[in-house]
């Protein structure tokens, strides 16, 4: 990686017998994925891409049509093991970079019994710098959900949630809160959330049970799940947000209860390269027809991917628990 943003990718010699290798990365405009052919150089393959703007990037090799991990890159993506990641530093990517050692919050694992999945499951929990388990006033809490094909690790490993929350806290933009990232891969998310994830989080952390101090947000599948909770349990979470999701049918929806119990419903979606956008846009007339109050400030440039969802979290987190 050069200081002017050019990145050279190089395979190991394990791929010396390959016939065709490309690097597939989110390096196109807006974070779209682009496949760039690599050239053979002795017993390795190489490609130089750039200049890339400062940001967080992820990539994999496509070797004779098969996805392959760059084994020389130690970065780990648990739910998508063929991906590797890297960060190009700069002001644009500051919120995605690590804060100085010892100044950020903590990420801990929370194991809880799931009566929906009939097994023990795990959540990751971010606590803010200076978190006080004995504080008289419980902390507000954000339950932050992943998408389909992902799991509880993705907001940390791909979404850079820790870095975003650390920076915004240190910048004075964040109300001190606890963020719980649970496993949403269940057939009944509302039951899993309310009967399993929430009680386990409350048992271990000093967090509020007051709906006005609770938030729920998610991306894609997690956004659909969030809106499902909004419809089924209006008022349980005063702050709600969905990234690249859609509202669906308005049948049986109690709009009055939603408006009464929700202080903020904020919606996000990517541009025309986000395949969810047509479903999202079709939801807005449904919300309008029901008279449900919501916020939507326009599309976030980028596809159905982490570039969009990182920006959505950056925008959302400072808005929580301020009304």
Automatic annotation (TrEMBL):
From which domain of life does this come?
A: Bacteria
SUPFAM superfamilies given for it?
alpha/beta-Hydrolases (SSF53474), E set domains (SSF81296)
Record-linked InterPro entries: AB_hydrolase_fold, Esterase-like, Ig-like_fold, Ig_E-set, Mycobacterial_A85_antigen
The record's section on Pfam families has:
Esterase
Q: Please identify the protein, giving its name as recorded.
A: Esterase family protein
């Amino acid at each position: 990686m050069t200081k002017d943003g050019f990145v050279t990718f190089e395979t190991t010699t394990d791929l010396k017998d390959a016939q065709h290798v490309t690097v597939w990365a989110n390096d196109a405009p807006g974070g779209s994925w682009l496949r760039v052919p690599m050239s053979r150089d002795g017993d390795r393959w190489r490609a130089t891409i750039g200049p890339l703007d400062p940001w967080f990037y992820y990539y994999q090799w496509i070797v004779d049509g098969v996805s392959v991990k760059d084994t020389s890159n130690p970065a780990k993506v648990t739910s998508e093991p063929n991906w590797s990641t890297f960060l190009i530093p700069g002001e644009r990517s500051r919120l995605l970079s690590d804060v100085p050692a010892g100044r950020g919050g903590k990420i801990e694992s929370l194991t809880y019994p799931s009566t929906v999945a009939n097994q023990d499951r795990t959540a990751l929990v971010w606590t803010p710098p200076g978190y006080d388990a004995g504080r008289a006033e419980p902390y507000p809490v954000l339950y932050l959900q992943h998408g389909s094909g992902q799991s509880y690790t993705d907001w940390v490993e791909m979404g850079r949630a820790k870095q975003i929350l650390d920076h915004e806290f240190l910048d004075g933009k964040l109300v001190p809160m606890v963020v719980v990232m649970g496993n949403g891969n269940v057939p009944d998310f509302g039951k899993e959330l309310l009967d399993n994830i929430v009680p386990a989080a409350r048992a271990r952390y000093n967090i509020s049970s007051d709906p006005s101090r609770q938030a729920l947000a998610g991306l894609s599948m997690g956004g659909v799940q969030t809106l499902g909770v909004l419809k089924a349990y209006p008022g349980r979470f005063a702050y709600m947000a969905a990234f690249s999701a859609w509202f669906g049918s308005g049948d049986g929806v109690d709009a009055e209860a939603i408006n009464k119990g929700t202080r903020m419903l904020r919606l996000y979606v990517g541009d025309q390269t986000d395949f969810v956008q047509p479903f999202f846009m079709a939801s807005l007339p449904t919300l309008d027809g029901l008279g449900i109050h919501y916020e939507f400030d326009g599309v976030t440039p980028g596809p159905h991917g982490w570039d969009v969802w990182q920006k959505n979290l950056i925008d959302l987190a400072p808005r929580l628990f301020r009304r």
